[in-house]
TrEMBL record:
Residues 68-249 form the IclR-ED domain. Keywords: DNA-binding, Transcription, Transcription regulation. This is HTH-type transcriptional repressor AllR. Residues 5-67 form the HTH iclR-type domain.
């Protein structure tokens, strides 16, 4: 990594790991997951707890994400008008399809989920903001990766592509064939490649021709009949047009991502 201040990187790594643990995490587990020894990690945790970026439950000896992280997140959202524009369209998508809608950005070799609007279906995708998934397997990732060359894809995945289900594509030639189809039809598909019980459709969001994010709709496989899929694709494509029209009238969206 270039220009990385390792003490700062350790703090951020700790916060990210704690945020990913819904049931909390103890010191030993946190040390194992971050690769930071306990002697180094403990004073960092004490400071983060003091500033409420992390909470510590003494009765269980577990660390949780603190309220200060929530305040920062909310402040970013409120000051980023482009996110509000997209969120309103996501709500509209959910009201029409009654399926969960998510937004993600490309962060290195992963998709980072940065917004989500839930449906009121009894059975739906269980996910959360902050989730990271392999970009080559997710619909959100594919719609953004399809613009890159095979050489760049290989640089992102020097150890090769991974598979999470029997339906996952982990061959670069097959992935490129998918990419060409995506560019031709204007949307991408995750056909049970991350979760065998879920299919997902996504479109990219561009500002003045540059992709800045993507939005998707996920459907339980048993509900993904031809009529539902057609509805989802049409709604996504229509929302894409409205969002991009709005984005083109805003200042440039600037996103920094690892690996960029």
């Amino acid at each position: 990594m270039k220009n990385i201040h390792m003490p700062t990187a350790r703090v951020l790594n700790i916060i990210e790991v704690v945020s990913s643990m819904d049931e909390g995490i103890n010191l030993t587990q946190l040390s194992s997951k971050t690769g930071i020894n306990k002697g180094t990690i403990h004073p960092i945790l004490k400071t983060l707890v003091e500033y409420s970026y992390i909470n510590f439950d003494k009765s269980k000896n577990l660390y949780y994400l603190g309220i200060s992280c929530s305040i920062l997140s909310r402040s970013f959202f409120e000051k980023s008008f482009w996110l509000q524009v997209i969120n309103e369209e996501m709500k509209s998508i959910v009201s029409l399809c009654n399926e969960v809608c998510q937004m993600g950005i490309l962060d290195g070799d992963e998709v980072l989920y940065i917004d989500k609007v839930q449906s009121d279906q009894a059975v739906q995708l269980v996910s959360k903001i902050g989730t990271r998934l392999p970009a080559t397997l997710s619909a959100l990732g594919k719609i953004m990766l399809c613009e890159f060359t095979d050489e760049y894809i290989n640089e992102l995945y020097p150890n090769g592509l991974i598979a999470l289900t029997p339906y996952s594509t982990f061959d670069i030639k097959k992935l490129r064939a998918q990419f060409e189809e995506i560019k031709e039809r204007g949307f991408s598909v995750d056909n049970r490649e991350i979760n065998e019980e879920t299919v997902c459709y996504a479109v990219s969001l561009k500002q003045r021709g540059k992709t800045i994010a993507a939005i998707s709709v996920s459907i339980p496989y048993f509900r993904a009949d031809d009529e539902k899929v057609k509805q989802v694709i049409n709604v996504l494509v229509s929302a894409k047009e409205r969002i991009e029209s709005a984005l083109d009238n805003l200042q440039d969206v600037k996103l920094n991502s690892r690996g960029a």
